[in-house]
Amino acid sequence: MVTKGDMFYTWAADADVLKKGECGGAITALQQYALKSGMVDAVLAVKKGADLYDAVPTVITDPAEIAETAGSLHCGTLLLSKLVKDYLDNNKTAKLGVTVKGCDTMGLIELAKRNAVDMDRLLLLGVNCGGSVSPVLARKMIADKFEVDPDLVHKEEIDKGQFIIEYEGGHKGIKIDDLEDEGYGRRSNCRRCLYKVPRQADLACGNWGVIGDKAGNATFVEVCSDKGANLLDAAAKAGAVATEAANPKGIEIRGKVEGAMLNLGNKWRRKDFEALASDLWGTIARETGRCIKCYSCIENCPVCFPVADELKGNSRMVTSGEVPPNPMFHLRRFAHISDSCINCGQCEELCPMDIPLALFSHAVRTEGDTTFEPKLGKAPYTN
Amino acid sequence: MDLKYVQTTCPYCGTGCSFNLVVKDGKVVGTQPYKRSPVNEGKVCPKGTYAHEFVNSPDRLTKPLIKKDGKFVEATWDEAYDLIAQKFKSYKPDEIACLSSARVSNEENYLLMKLARGVFKTRHIDHCARLCHASTVAGLAASFGSGAMTNSILDIAESKCVFVIGSNTFEQHPLIGRKIVQAKLNGAKVIVFDPRYTPTAKQADLYASFYSGTDVAVLNCLMGEIIRNGWEDKEWVSKRAKGYEELKATVLKDDYLPENVEKISGIAAADLKTAAEWIGTAESSALLYSMGITQHTVGVDNVKSTANLQMLTGNIGRRGGGVNALRGQNNVQGACDMGALPVVFTGYQKVIDEAVHKKFADAWGFPDGICEPKNGYEVTVMFNVLTDNPGELKAMYIMGENPMLSDPDLTHAEHALEQLEFLVVQDIFLTETAQHADVVLPASCYAEKEGTQTSTERRVQMWRKAQDPPGEAKVDWQILSEVGAAMGYADQFPYQSAEEIFNEMASLTPSYHGMNYERLNRPEALHWPCPSEDHPGTPILHIGKCSHPDGMGVMHPIEWKPPAEVPDAEYPYILTTGRCLWHWHTGSMTRRSETLDNEVPTGWIEINTEDAQALGIADKEMVRATSRRGTVDVPAKVTDEIKKGVMFMPFHFKECAANVLTNNALDPIAKIPEFKACAVKVEKITEEA
Description:
The structure holds two protein chains of two kinds.
Chain A: E1 7-12, H1 15-20, H2 26-36, E2 42-48, E3 55-60, H3 81-88, E4 96-100, H4 102-113, E5 122-127, H5 135-144, E6 153-159, E7 162-167, E8 170-175, H6 176-181, H7 188-192, E9 203-206, E10 219-223, H8 226-237, E11 241-245, H9 248-277, H10 280-288, H11 296-299, H12 308-311, H13 328-336, H14 346-349, H15 357-369
Parallel strand pairs in A: 2-4, 4-5, 5-9
Antiparallel strand pairs in A: 1-10, 1-11, 2-3, 6-7, 7-8, 9-10
Helix pairs in contact in A: 3-4
Chain B: E1 4-9, E2 18-24, E3 27-33, H1 46-49, E4 65-68, E5 71-74, H2 77-89, E6 96-99, H3 106-120, E7 125-126, H4 129-132, H5 134-144, H6 153-156, E8 161-165, H7 169-172, H8 174-185, E9 189-193, E10 206-208, H9 215-228, H10 234-240, E11 241-242, H11 244-251, H12 258-265, H13 269-281, E12 286-289, H14 291-294, H15 299-312, E13 323-325, H16 332-337, H17 354-364, H18 379-388, E14 395-399, H19 403-406, H20 410-418, E15 422-427, E16 439-442, E17 451-454, E18 459-463, H21 476-486, H22 498-508, H23 517-520, E19 526-527, E20 553-554, E21 573-578, H24 594-599, E22 605-608, H25 609-615, E23 622-626, E24 631-639, E25 646-650, E26 663-666, E27 673-674, E28 678-684
Parallel strand pairs in B: 6-7, 6-14, 8-9, 8-12, 9-10, 11-20, 12-13, 14-15, 15-16, 21-25, 22-24
Antiparallel strand pairs in B: 1-2, 2-3, 4-5, 4-16, 17-18, 18-19, 21-28, 22-25, 23-24, 23-28, 26-27
Family (chain B): Belongs to the prokaryotic molybdopterin-containing oxidoreductase family.
Domain 4Fe-4S Mo/W bis-MGD-type (chain B): 3-59
Protein name (chain B): Formate dehydrogenase subunit alpha
């Protein structure tokens, strides 16, 4: 009997899934089983689009198509939380399996707090995430720093502190630290992230801590909820996946990897927030002074809840049609999300004027968390 | 439960951003970022964020309409086609004119061009590029041998100095505006000269306001300063340019000394000197312009002057340099490339060139030949002919254009359309122009069809179908094919897909020859010229040599001339016109997009605070603006952000249409109207008895 807190090495039983998936294909096999067995009616996951720099969200109802979503895409910087709210939660009956990173998980938690999604109908398969790289910057990084034509790369991964590419005729790894010092590497919000293992999903899956003969051939699965326990139990009993108890040495190593990532996250926090503190108002004024009011930061924010018509008309302080808008346009948003910004980075990554919006709202949130009691209750995650 | 993403290219400006359309239950319901786009990396402007909102508007045209006794009556497609065929067969080729569209795909522009020249056999085909960048096509072709933006969008971020004149890039090409920001963060100096303190100007290291229509004087002054200080690129000038001595003699005249140009332009001599130094001494300097340069009676002169400056400083064929003529509409570059112009077939192959004419006639295989190898009328000339020589032009086919709001001097435009015996309009809404039609054909928007469009940087990208057109509406290339068939030329229009049309076009067009849908479906797509299937495309033109047969760049000595109409005692202010971030041209799409319409529901006239005080006008007060051509009532926006003596109106709004006031004076070469400068007076509206 699987119970919450258990840790397993897990791999797909099906030879084809084993081959297509990474690290034993456990997530692919579990999503497939959840769909086949009727635990969920559909699965929301990410598949490869034009190439490995192009991550496309997809909703799957046919178990045979789940294999399309096998494997990881570190250049996929999507956030799935708001898609669930905007497009997939509206019939209020279907159950949905979702493959989630930390930011997807936090986004869904915040949405659930506001009754905007129903967690009872979601089955969350969490994946550890050390951060992701914006696709166009990734291509530039591979061309400039790796000196490899990005079109020739057929696999990328982030492992042991390195960004590693495999391409026709070889493979290369460069330390993430070195890349990031030169402005490449992970998105800046990812660098500051302290939520690497999504333990508020139903299962938290990853390759950290898989050692011995299972290294590379199995997924480390931490059971985080009864729902997760049921899925793993049933999938194993049905022969969809095979499991064995995680090696205690592996558990220790996993803890160390996570700890190292958190240290790195804290280092970036210190660096980013201290720099911001040195000229807080000046920086915010200067950066938001080129805003073109495209509303992307609002439309793509998982915790922004605009009063649809009010937001886009005149208010006393924000005149409609004015570009750049009155600073209150940004200030009121920072206030709105002050105790819920999950630092998913979408506002910043999608800003047409490259305003470091996530830096500002993440700083507000973390400072607020150390100072005030959160109004909607303490978050079950730390970011 | 379903969720489908359809990656496509934006239908608004010429930047060529991509996004995903979200499709649920067969209908477009939203947009989502497409981060893999090399152009915009998932980022969009407000129009992009809400580009889905007009698609399923309740007033989309869904059935063909035929006007009977002054009223539109719904008709079947067969009835509409029969009437069109019967009417068009009754006219001589020279009595027919066609307006193609910068809003539709390359394939559809090519097809209307083929319909005009092959089926109607008329030489009169043009489109609204005449109103925006006709002077670019003519001016840059004279300077470099190719009339398009020389460098790429991404390249602007590499520049060490960005000089923006006549472009409000942040509002009109926002994701190119981002490249200015990136250049600035990389240490570039940014110079903006504009009559208005625009959002673009606010990001400048050096901003100066100037009087609309003094561009040549300003550019000559900068060149004079550069030569006097020895900052010119001597190697470029000696090895790659013709006409340097003549140019030098002109720009060194006393007329163009900074102190004298200060008087003409209103830019302080010190600022002119600073700008000249920054441009002249930068490792690379990019010049960005748009309608502020082109929409003048001296539009071609202005364009040639920008080219002169960039050649003088060696910024042609150089990374981070270039004459970056920012094309306005999503596919205005493509519509020109497709030969929807009165003087060229596709790829700027001249209609008067007999070998070219024969090539098209042979390839198309019309049994009774095609139009004669003579240049046709420009759209502005068509409208003048209609009013000045009634009966010469009798019928017109307009696809996706709205001259009843976009043309200068709307009273004149309306009078012109009224002269037509028969007008067909193919559009997605019953626009101001469509209301004048005899037959209206319900067409498709960007979300409803496959096809390609060519952005300002000559990048050819795909549109992808996300939903069916509403009701009985059809995709434009299908309508054009069926009109061709109804006229008796089914064999010349056998297309089953947009791809077949593209392949036919590419086979006849050297600059597109190496392109096909498979190659264009890559996220990077391809920049023309791309002459062969193994050619990688050409992001930067004129590296090593220009496109003239001898490879040289041509410098043109240009003297400054004032606008056709200048302020006087009766009409004491300069009126300039333009767009705002929230709306697109005649507003047929954006004013039906709820969010955009909420943000800016109507037009305005910008008046300098001192001028407003003198006139006794308060902010938001409804005022009356009058030119020699007409009068409009429009709310005042009193602001310090416009130069004293200059007024500005956006042209999107029919209830206060700026083009009632504008002047139909034309550039003698490009036939582009002077939208950017005319004389107006503004008055308080007094209580009427």
